[in-house]
Amino acid sequence: MASGVATVWLPVEDMGRAVKFYGETLGLTVKSEGDDWSELTTDGLTIGLNGREDTHDGATGGAVITFEPDIDLYDEIVRLTDAGVEFVGEVSNNPWGRIATFKDSEGNDLQLFEPPPS
């Protein structure tokens, strides 16, 4: 049985662009940066950015990372939209919380999550 998540790896086409997106746009801490591998951290989780193989045709499916913003969900959507992020569809309202879906700079799926009020 897994006791937690140690690292999430995401494939990227352009390492510099991806590090800028996760570091500057999303505000994660850049731990290390290289041509084929970079690491960022958020709330104790390491996110690895892995340079795609030349034989790969681009983002198609894969892992989804869900972030819980420090501020109101809609305020974070405005902040990210102002930074050039495009959201996919409307915010999904569910009994278990709200989800806003967007893409990173490399085409990977990301989400913002806000739990229901307690």
Descriptive key words:
single chain, alpha/beta, 2,3-Dihydroxybiphenyl 1,2-Dioxygenase, domain 1, four-stranded mixed β-sheet, Anthracycline_SecMetBiosynth, Glyas_Fos-R_dOase_dom, VOC family protein, VOC_core
Proportion of β residues?
35-45%
Number of helices: 2
Helical residue percent? 10-25%
**Nearest-integer average pLDDT:** 86
Largest sheet: 4 strands, mixed
What would you give as the CATH superfamily? 2,3-Dihydroxybiphenyl 1,2-Dioxygenase, domain 1
CATH class annotation: Alpha Beta
Radius of gyration: 15 Å
Topology at a glance:
Blueprint: E1 7-12, H1 15-25, E2 29-32, E3 37-42, E4 45-51, E5 65-67, H2 73-82, E6 87-94, E7 97-103, E8 109-114
Parallel strand pairs: 1-4, 5-8
Antiparallel strand pairs: 2-3, 3-4, 6-7, 7-8
General description of the model:
- With 118 residues, the chain is of the alpha/beta class.
- The chain has one domain (7-114): Roll (2,3-Dihydroxybiphenyl 1,2-Dioxygenase, domain 1).
- Helix content is 18%, strand content 40%.
- It has helices at 15-25, 73-82; strands at residues 7-12, 29-32, 37-42, 45-51, 65-67, 87-94, 97-103, 109-114.
- The chain has a 4-stranded mixed beta sheet, with helices on one face.
- The model has no long low-confidence stretch (mean pLDDT 86).
Short description:
With about 120 residues, the protein is an alpha/beta fold. The chain is built from two helices and eight strands; from the N terminus they run βαββββαβββ. The strands form two sheets. Strands 1-4-3-2 form a four-stranded mixed β-sheet, covered by helices on one side. A four-stranded mixed β-sheet has the order 5-8-7-6, with helices on one face.
